[in-house]
Design goal:
By secondary structure, the chain is α+β, with helices and mostly antiparallel strands. It is built from 16 helices and eleven strands. It binds fe (iii) ion.
Length: 347
């Protein structure tokens, strides 16, 4: 038990099950009417839906929240793992779980019927639940709306020299965008784009998506890349409200298609001991009620058709997502990482 606690601490669990985590998890696994979740997503985002599921189905949801180490934990637990489902964001993290061999294929008419093909793994190893668009934040003061870039490709145009801020090129959000660029344009053009974008940076890549908007507010740069939900999160934050007020959101095109999107999603673990209940929960999360709750909680877009978007999202403009399969984005991630290094994006 002492070892288990040490291990849990070592892999960065932020909150665990009551008293002895390992024992509680084991009991949970053998109890009927339960489903066990490992989640990188924060409690406030997913707990309300799990509670709604329990009220509807009577099935209890036990959740272990962590910031990192869940895939490693699943690998260590192997066949004895109590976990049924894993929740995380980004195609990079979902495909990492699949590549580590800790997920299994699952497919039901509801899952494949509701979740668009581009937002799920073709064999059912992971499914998107919400979409987030990677958009431009553009200075209200220094870039007239008509002059703002309309595409990601334009960010490499020399007339933006010294005017763009981004986070590290190696962050999963930037890797996915670069991988999508490769999928659409091929390796050579994607590399040129990355070099052009790097040449336009106002400063060495640093900070998170919100820090780039802060830099626009402070006059360091005029355009940044960031996920759409940070607009809402900044508006809700007393200090960051002014950052959000200094920019307007732009939904750029990629290769003449829609805006690059990524997902938050779920995967069934390979060892899932409560598979039937896990499928019930997965399907519940595609229902209109859960879709609306989940998306609104973090200013993300529902993936189910016909589910209303939050008022803020509607006020930001219309999202037309790039329909490139995220499977293809995942495939191109290793190449994207290689190109980001080759152009010295982070130097
Ligand atoms: Fe984020």
């Amino acid at each position: 038990m002492r070892f288990q606690h040490g291990l849990l601490a070592a892999i960065g669990l932020t909150a665990a099950l009551t008293s002895s985590p390992a024992l509680a998890a084991e009991q949970a696994a053998i109890n009927k009417g339960e489903v066990n979740v490992y989640s990188y997503r924060q409690p406030f985002l997913i707990q309300p839906m799990f509670d709604a599921f329990t009220r509807k189905s009577g099935v209890k949801v036990n959740v272990v929240f962590a910031k990192k180490g869940l895939v490693e934990r699943l690998e260590q637990e192997g066949r004895n793992s109590p976990a049924d489902l894993i929740f995380t964001v980004d195609i990079g993290r979902l495909s990492d779980a699949q590549n580590a061999g800790v997920t299994q294929s699952v497919s039901t008419p509801i899952l494949t019927g509701v979740i668009p093909q581009s937002l799920r793994q073709s064999d059912g190893h992971w499914y998107g639940l919400t979409q987030r668009a990677r958009i431009l934040y553009v200075s209200k003061d220094r870039v007239p709306l008509d002059d703002a870039p309309k595409s990601y490709e334009e960010l490499a145009d020399p007339n933006w020299k010294g005017r763009i801020c981004t986070r590290s090129g190696s962050h999963v959000y930037q890797v996915a965008l670069t991988a999508a660029m490769i999928a659409h344009h091929g390796e050579a053009r994607a590399k040129d784009w990355l070099s052009g974008l790097k040449a336009n940076l106002a400063r060495k890549p640093q900070g998170n998506d919100r820090a780039q908007v802060k830099a626009i507010k402070e006059g360091e740069c005029d355009i940044s890349l960031g996920n759409n939900y940070y607009f809402g999160l900044m508006l809700q934050n007393e200090e960051q409200f002014a950052w959000a007020q200094s920019v307007y959101p732009v939904f750029p095109t990629l290769a003449g298609n829609g805006t690059h999107v990524n997902i938050s999603g779920m995967a069934m673990t390979k060892a899932s001991p409560n598979k039937e209940n896990a499928v019930k929960l997965m399907e519940f999360l595609t229902s209109n009620l859960a879709q609306q709750m989940y998306a609104e909680q973090n200013f993300e877009y529902p993936i189910a058709e016909g589910v209303p978007q939050s008022g803020l999202l509607r006020s930001m403009g219309k999202l037309k997502p790039d329909t490139l399969e995220l499977d293809k984005v995942a495939e191109n991630r290793p190449m994207a990482i290689k190109l980001i290094n080759e152009v010295g994006y982070n130097d």
